[in-house]
Design goal:
- The chain is of the alpha+beta class and 202 residues long.
- It folds into two domains: 88 residues, Roll (Sulfate adenylyltransferase), CATH 3.10.400.10; 96 residues, Arc Repressor Mutant, subunit A.
- Helix content is 43%, strand content 19%.
- It is built from nine helices and six strands, in the order αβββααβαααααββα.
- The strands form two sheets. A four-stranded antiparallel beta sheet has the order 1-4-3-2. Strands 5-6 form a two-stranded antiparallel sheet.
- A hairpin with a 4-residue loop joins strand 5 and strand 6.
């Protein structure tokens, strides 16, 4: 479920307690979690509701300026049913700290072994270092443009970048990606170069 950074921040500070989505069937479950730009959120309820039952309090709880704005947002969905999804902040995203942590020699070897396994699992051949090197050379470039430069479709490319993000090697920008300090240090070590200095990435 896509959430804007403003909504994610609202969930973290408690000002947003629910979001609304039009689906044919629920796509999240109570007790499930999701990572966002503001940390990990938890789904506390999933309830089918009628559009006409919504109130100004519902709009404020969803981070909307008015009931009219909530109605307008709800009209954008294509599903047959409107759902109210209760949300709460669960915990900080542990990957944030991982991205900033420069790897030890042992961790570099462990990352390399993990990437090797991921490469071996791809019938089309190695891909992990190719994407890391591409992002290193092209920070803040749109994902569709990066994917096209490799002759790939955008969606599977983004899924691959997400796998590298799970290892703390990349992070997302407002547009595109860049290597995290951990990712940059790993790639430098693979090339026999000293680790770069801090980039300020969070």
């Amino acid at each position: 479920m896509l959430l804007t950074r403003a909504v994610a921040d609202g969930i973290r500070d408690g000002s947003v307690s629910a979001v609304f989505r039009r689906w044919d069937a629920p796509r999240v479950r109570v007790g499930g979690t999701q990572r966002t730009g503001a940390g990990v959120i938890r789904f506390t309820s999933v309830q089918q509701v009628a559009q006409e039952s919504l109130t100004e309090d519902d709009a404020r709880g969803a981070g909307m300026p008015s009931l009219a704005a909530l109605h307008a947002a709800n009209r954008r969905g294509r599903g047959a049913q409107l759902y109210r999804i209760g949300v709460a902040f669960d915990r900080p995203d542990e990957r944030v700290a991982l991205r900033a942590a420069l790897p030890t020699p042992a961790e570099i070897a462990e990352i390399a072994a993990t990437l090797d396994r991921m490469d071996r699992g791809r019938r089309t051949g190695p891909w992990t270092r190719e994407i890391l090197t591409l992002i290193e050379a092209n920070p803040a470039v749109r994902a569709p443009d990066l994917a096209a430069s490799l002759g790939r479709e955008t969606k599977p490319f983004k899924l691959d970048v997400r796998k590298l993000k799970e290892l703390g090697l990349t992070h997302s920008l407002d547009v595109g990606y860049e290597l995290s300090p951990r990712g940059a240090a790993f790639l430098a070590a693979e090339h026999g170069l000293p680790a770069p200095g801090p980039t300020g990435a969070s």
